[in-house]
Amino acid sequence: TTKPSASSGAESMTTRLTPAKHQTITILIVRLRNPSRVSAAFTAEELQPEMDAHGNIHVVRKPIRRSEAPAPVPVPITFKRRAEEPHGELALAELLPDMQAKLALAVPITGVFGPDGVRRISISEFQAGETCVVKSAADSAREDQRAFNIQR
């Protein structure tokens, strides 16, 4: 905000800086893909018959390097927050369905984790431009199943 200063005869402009009450933040969200599953069936390229020194034919599986799944693409999401957000937990809960829609997930999002691996519980904890990993209910169920299988 600028206003004329009355302290001198000449009109000079002074600038008063105040912190913004609202901030517009853009973060990048990404959902990690599941590791690709190895199929039990082999392709014809992988199964190659070989003949040994005695004339016996053996079918040997040749290792073929499969291309890995492409890296997940971060999706930007922009939201507004107050500088001193007293109810950041509620605002994050309202933001989760938007994140779910942006990532086209069929199951609800259960958590958002920052690049440091710490779960974000309020929108005031997000830093502009950071990439956050989104975890869904399916991921939690998968982890529970893995833990159950390990215990057996």
Give an overview in words.
This protein has a single domain, classed as Ubiquitin-like (UB roll) (Roll), CATH 3.10.20. Helices cover 20% and strands 30% of the residues. It has a four-stranded mixed beta sheet with strand order 6-3-8-7. Strands 1-2 form a two-stranded antiparallel ribbon. The chain has a two-stranded antiparallel ribbon with strand order 4-5. It is built from two helices and eight strands; from the N terminus they run E-E-E-E-E-E-H-E-E-H. The termini are far apart. It has helices at 88-103, 137-151; strands spanning 2-5, 12-15, 22-30, 47-51, 57-61, 75-82, 109-113, 131-136. It is elongated. It has 152 residues and is of the alpha+beta class. The longest helix has 16 residues, at 88-103.
Overall average pLDDT:
75
Please give the number of β-strands: 8
Task: Supply the CATH class.
Answer: Alpha Beta
Distance separating the two termini? 67 Å
Number of domains: 1
Question: What is the H/E string?
Answer: EEEEEEHEEH
| Largest sheet composition | 4 strands, mixed
- Residues in helices, as a percent range: 10-25%
At the third CATH level, what is the topology name? Ubiquitin-like (UB roll)
Radius of gyration: 28 Å
Query: Which band does the percent of strand residues land in?
Result: 25-35%
Which CATH architecture? Roll
Spatial shape = elongated
SS field, number of helical segments: 2
Structural class by SSE content = alpha+beta
